[in-house]
Design a protein that fits this description.
Elements (H helix, E strand, L loop, with lengths): L2 H22 L2 H4 L1 H32 L8 H23 L3 H24 L10 H9 L1
Helix pairs in contact: 1-3, 3-4, 3-5, 4-5, 5-6
Protein name: EDRF1 TPR repeats region domain-containing protein
InterPro entries: EDRF1_TPR
Organism: Micrurus corallinus
Length: about 140
């Protein structure tokens, strides 16, 4: 893991801890603005982590020889990225922040296109039809 990955992870854990304190000590009701800010920041850091893993997966994909299969490392990065985008969307939706939820949905769409493109490059036969994997990811995008 990189320094950046570690810093992002620690930031996320801090916001999650702050969220838990606000929820379990009933401060959420006493100070709703503070609660909203913590949830928003938690969503933002989850987006940053999702983008971080998505960019790492894209870098692995660009280094891969076209004929090679999608690596397990790439798939793990996709899963991590998707999971963080999903958590961020849930956080933004919980405070009715549709603008930031839309941003994360756009990033999730980019991730799905990266996944589809990775499966497109496998095999090297340039046919006009999508493989089942490509179709799945493009539909998700």
């Amino acid at each position: 893991s990189t320094d950046l990955e570690c810093q992002l992870s620690v930031s996320c854990k801090c916001y999650e801890a702050a969220h838990e304190i606000l929820v379990f000590s009933n401060l959420k009701e006493q100070n709703p603005e503070q609660y909203t800010q913590v949830v928003k920041r938690m969503g933002n850091i989850q987006n940053e982590i999702g983008v971080f893993y998505m960019n790492q997966a894209a870098a692995l994909q660009s280094e891969r020889v076209e004929s090679k299969m999608v690596s397990t490392a790439e798939q793990q990065l996709w899963k991590k990225s998707f999971s963080y985008f999903e958590k961020g969307i849930q956080n933004f939706e919980s405070i009715d922040d549709s603008t930031n939820a839309a941003l994360l949905l756009c990033n999730m769409g980019r991730l799905m296109r990266i996944c589809a493109h990775a499966h497109c490059a496998v095999g090297g036969d340039f046919k006009r039809e999508f493989s089942p994997e490509e179709a799945l990811y493009y539909n998700k995008a």
